[in-house]
Specification:
Layout (H helix, E strand, L loop, with lengths): L1 E12 L5 H6 L1 E11 L2 H6 L8 H14 L5 H15 L5 E8 L11 E9 L5 E4 L1
Antiparallel strand pairs: 1-2, 2-3, 3-4, 4-5
Helix pairs in contact: 3-4
Length: about 130
């Protein structure tokens, strides 16, 4: 199966376990992998035969900006579910959601969640963290 990688999607959002994270907000970064058949697009050179990744970027940014969850795991799941629901030709999606400035004392790294969901033939999804 073919794959489209969209990396470095950034947006400011209000997801976080601590109350101040849901009030003050913070930056999030998302990388997305989309599995789908790209053979037709490779022949036709037509955007209609693939995924317009500008729309994927817009969807991810919108979800980050408007969602208010306690856990970034939930935000990553919401992004994956929305992508699978919006584009029927996508069979699998992987989300890597990073929180570059985690509010943890004496910690200057970042926290990332990697979540993969596969669309089954019945239209349901399976999630793998």
């Amino acid at each position: 199966m073919d794959c489209i990688h969209v990396t470095g999607i950034r947006a400011y959002g209000y997801t976080g376990y601590l109350p101040e994270e849901q009030v003050l907000g913070q930056w999030f970064e998302v990388d997305v992998k989309l599995w789908l058949d790209l053979s037709q697009a490779a022949k036709t050179d037509a955007i209609a035969d693939t995924i317009d990744y500008r729309q994927v970027i817009t969807l991810v940014q919108h979800l980050i900006k408007t969602s208010k969850f306690a856990l970034i795991e939930r935000l990553a799941g919401a992004i994956a579910d929305s992508i699978l629901q919006h584009w029927q030709q996508i069979t699998q999606v992987q989300i890597v959601l990073s929180k570059p400035a985690a509010p943890i004392p004496d910690f200057s790294g970042k926290i990332s969640i990697e979540l993969t969901k596969i669309k089954s033939h019945l239209g349901t999804t399976k999630s793998y963290l």
